[in-house]
Amino acid sequence: MSGRRRRRGLLVALEGIDGTGKSTLTGALATALRRRGLSVAVRREPADPRLGRLAQEASVLDAWTGAVYFTVDRHLVQGEVRRDLARYDVVLSDRSYFSTLAYQGSALPPRDRGRLERIQWEATVAPDRVVLLELAPSEALQRLERRSRTRAPLERRRTLERVARAYRRLSRRPGWIVLDGRRPARELVAAAVRALGFDRGPRVTRPGGERR
Questions:
Q1: Using CA atoms, how far apart are residues 185 and 27, in angstroms rounded to an integer?
Q2: What is the pTM of this model?
Q3: Cis omega (within 30 of 0) for bond into 153
């Protein structure tokens, strides 16, 4: 290896309401990128299941407390994320702080939403690109029902409808890729690869157009 410092990898977050197929797409996308010669790390939020359970339970009663639990979990692994970005071409994250902004933030007053986002900037590494899987809450709930009859605290129709609206607002930001969650997994992978700029070889495309 030459003495030149290796450039930081690309952090791609996969987002969407529960039941859209984020975990399935994350795994399939990782496989597709590796086949193109890229080194890929896969991460999942929350990293600590215990903190995740506390966050889910707290969010039902107090969205701010739930958001704090998720933020603490994110902050504790910030160093791991940075190390992965130093070692891999691409880091795929099943959820990011945008999940907290969509789920807990959408239940807060506008002033608190802004404060919550500012805290995220200090607590974690912001994604370079975000892939949003869109799916009607009714269809997402049907998928969740087929998976398990036990619902997590936030897997309720009214909650998912509110969160879906929040994701729609967030997706207007630069660097977001919106995909139709009803499409077959193979088509979603191909669309994500194209949108991320990996369809012509192992090159990392950043939001500003820089490639490496």
A1: 11
A2: 0.89
A3: no
> DSSP 3-state assignment of 62?
coil
Q: Are 84 and 9 in contact (CB under 8 A)?
A: yes
CATH homologous superfamily for the domain 10-196:
P-loop containing nucleotide triphosphate hydrolases (3.40.50.300)
Cβ pair 196, 129 in contact under 8 A: yes
Domain boundaries, the chain: 10-196
Calpha distance 32→34 (Å, rounded): 6
**Contact indicator for 81, 11 with CB cutoff of 8 Å:** yes
Please work out, in degrees rounded to the nearest 5, the angle formed at the alpha carbon of residue 137 by the alpha carbons of 54 and 69.
15
* C-alpha to C-alpha distance for 5 and 3, rounded to whole angstroms: 6
* Residues β-bridged to residue 134: 180
Dihedral class, residue 182 (left if φ above 0, else alpha if ψ from -120 to 50, else beta): alpha
Residue 207's pLDDT is what?
45
User: Taking each helix axis from N to C terminus, what angle separates 22-35 and 185-196, rounded to the nearest 10 degrees?
Assistant: 60
Query: Per-10-residue mean pLDDT for the chain, 212 residues long?
Result: 64 97 96 97 96 94 96 97 97 98 96 96 96 97 84 85 97 97 96 93 48 39
How far are the Cα atoms of 20, 44, 62, 88, 185 from residue 26, in angstroms, in the given order? Answer: 12, 9, 30, 16, 10
What is d(CA 45, CA 20) in angstroms, rounded to the nearest whole number? 16
